[in-house]
Design brief:
Two copies of one chain form a homodimer. Helices cover 28% and strands 23% of the residues of chain A. By secondary structure, chain A is of the alpha+beta class. Chain A has two domains: 55-167, 2-Layer Sandwich (60s Ribosomal Protein L30, Chain: A), CATH 3.30.1330.10; 182-340, PurM-like C-terminal domain (Phosphoribosyl-aminoimidazole Synthetase, Chain A, domain 2, Alpha-Beta Complex), CATH 3.90.650. In chain A, a hairpin with a 5-residue loop joins strand 13 (329-332) and strand 14. Strand 1 (57-61) of chain A pairs antiparallel with strand 2 (65-74) of chain B.
């Protein structure tokens, strides 16, 4: 199109051959941005709503309902790790947050911050991973945005995803709803994501074989709700780990949560790495696990259903909700003593998601 | 709380006195994250939905309707500029994108990426600015997320905002809808935002007195729609400027848009700076302007209404839609010649929003 450029238009450096890397011009909002979006983003994520190319996506809600809305900015380092990458994480993290209100996630929007010099092939790999994760979850990415910052002002790329889901009638699930007498179920082993990311950073010094558990959990939530059971709380124990998330719930609901140490599933590989490095798996991030808190009468049905559903096979009943001390999480250790499990304080594993 | 920390919990550096700066621990998901959110984010942006503290916000849609959804990542440099800052920009940019489908913006979600070492007082200033802008627009920030990256992996802070609005029944506004015979109205002067940001970067070498036009345009859109006129296209000419946005519309609708150079409002200050630096104001970003494209019969009503509404006082009829050459924008210059106005190619002003 060079021959049709008016003389007064600002000239600019062209991208490197074959558009191999991101340059500042890709963030201009002009032709280069449009080319990148068309050739890279639309190719990977295109669907009729996204392709309408308006400033906002037009989505229909067929009847009056409650919606669950959530946003997450993803800055995981490195971008690729055993079992996943930032793209899968960005889709699953937001799908899961929306699902934790019992909602059926429907639409995602995604904002990308790209660092100048990023290889386009890396972006394409991340987008392909987003597409696969979105397909698995059954959600559409309906709107997006791309910005470029100078080299040294980001770390490859960051992705912010916002999710919208529909809360079925009659569902009232919240961290506020845990009640004394409730049972606490965990959908599988803890610590896998955090340790997999550490390994990708070469911080282990050896190969553990541990993979991130990053997965969309909406179908597992659907399975849980399909039992017709009353569910009080659903929450995914991500950053800060199981300990921090349970503390959040105990505080929100003003109850005490008691855990049995021996019931909490941890693989021997994760346990070995944690012992070696001095980590407590209770504080290590997960990206494919749910905590379910529900009345005892429904626990057996839900537990069985979870064990027979993908991503829930290693579910375990890990504790109980009691009245007091309010806002506390207590753990009966395998030695028979009881200790306070506090919220993570400060930094443990930065940029884990 | 130090006395209640279990022995096996990872110790971490405490924040600097009075939590003056952001440290990596603020991104841990643990106590420090919670403290930051409570003392800084909730204080500035708190509302009942945000304060529910669940993984997602629960919003109600009272009847079946269409929703407009949009996301934008904001990386403007510097964070503060004459007339605005990244906080006001993050709210207005997304409010405006949602409004451009004719929707009434209702809810925002915001994801923050903070650079280690950022002064908390800067974050507080940005959040206060978001609160003011959200109040002016009449929207609620219902969900948020905060991540921290190491020094040198961001540039102070980045904000991704996703907006949700309700499209009133009967409204069908899209970049696809421009038709030959339509009139093109612009809501005011162009180039102010881009030049204000340049000045904040000390790139002018002098003080121009130009302020960014960053503003929420939803009330102006409401005023336009209140005339009962048929509106074909609404679009805000941000990154890439008026020229790029009109090219997008011409391409989407497969029409030609013709402009009269002498009708396009530009302040003498912006014109002087552009002439000095070799910029064309047609390509300089705006953050508080709308392009309205509508059938001629409604143009007078809408134009008058716009001139009598805040943020629309300097509205002008700048051109027409004709049939061909399709996908092109042409401009009749003040010399009487006609030239092609192409889309911005490559980089002109990086990190302008």
């Amino acid at each position: 199109m060079t021959d049709s450029l008016p003389n007064d238009q600002i000239s600019c450096p062209l991208p490197l051959p074959h558009q191999q890397v991101i340059v500042m011009g890709h963030g201009s909002g002009g032709k280069m941005t449009h080319d990148l979006i068309k050739k890279t983003f639309y190719k990977a994520l295109g669907n009729p709503i996204l392709l309408s190319k308006d400033d906002a996506a037009n989505i229909g809600i067929t009847e009056g309902c409650k919606l669950a809305v959530s946003i997450d900015s993803h800055v995981v380092f490195p971008l690729f790790f055993p079992g996943g990458d930032i793209g899968r994480l960005a889709v699953c993290g937001t799908v899961n947050d929306v699902s934790m209100l019992g909602a059926v996630p429907m639409y995602l929007t995604a904002g990308f911050i790209l660092e100048e010099g990023l290889e386009v092939s890396i972006l394409e790999k991340v987008l392909a991973s987003m597409r696969v994760a979105a397909q698995e979850a059954g959600v559409y990415i309906v709107a997006g945005d791309t910005k470029v910052v100078q080299k040294g002002k980001a770390d490859g790329l960051y992705i912010s995803t916002c999710g919208i889901g529909k809360i079925p009638p009659g569902i009232e699930i919240s961290g506020l709803c845990a009640q004394p007498g409730d049972v606490v179920i965990l959908s599988g082993t803890i610590g896998d994501h955090g340790i997999a990311v550490l390994e990708a950073r070469n911080e282990l010094g050896f190969t553990s074989g541990i993979k991130s558990d990053v997965a969309p959990l909406n179908h597992l939530v659907e399975a849980i709700l399909s039992t017709g059971s009353t569910i009080h709380v659903l929450r995914d124990p991500t950053r800060g780990g199981l300990a921090t998330t349970l503390n959040e719930i105990a505080s929100q609901s003003q109850v005490c949560i008691t855990l049995n140490e021996s019931s909490i599933p941890v693989t021997s590989e994760v346990m070995a790495v944690c012992e070696l490095l001095g980590y407590d798996p209770l504080y290590v991030a997960n990206e494919g696990k749910i905590i379910v808190i529900l009345p005892e009468q429904f626990a057996c049905d839900v537990f069985t259903k979870m064990q027979n559903t993908p991503y829930g096979e290693r579910s375990a009943i890990i504790g109980r909700v009691i009245d007091a001390p309010k806002g506390r999480v207590l753990m009966k250790t395998s030695l028979g003593t009881t200790r306070i499990v506090d919220m993570l304080s400060g930094e443990m594993l930065p940029r884990i998601c």
